[in-house]
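tool_call: predict_structure(chain=1)
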Amino acid sequence: MNTRTKTDFTPLDQGLYAAAFQLLDPTPQPITPEAPSAPAPASARPAIAPPAHRPGPVEKTLSDALAFLDTHGWARHSLIHPEGARCSIGALRAAAGSRNTAYRDAGNLLLDEARRQHGKKWQTIPHWNDSHTGAQVRSVWEAAIHRARHLSI
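tool_result:
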């Protein structure tokens, strides 16, 4: 192994080096550390908005179906009432647009919530829907939407 210790560098003249910097900046400002400033009061800080909520497909289907019921009305004993009102399953179909995964999962969550609130005996959404009041049905819808949001589905 060959280690070379002698270099061909010209020694630096420190005075010349200082003179060159003096020409570049004739009146240098001394660097002084700044004292830390007090944080701005909360009222002076810009408000930071929480991230916008993006509902999952199940939450969206349930929310849209409940909005449909609010707009067109809720019905018992028929999928679609002649005046446009719908039962719970009819509102789900209108909101989903087709019998897709979101429709199926929203229906399962709605029926599960109906069983939580009104007992395990309910086998279908129409049977449960037709056996309860509008307030009871709405309570189940709202709880199902809340659960879908909490589960991010």
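agent: The mean pLDDT is 86. Proceeding to next step.
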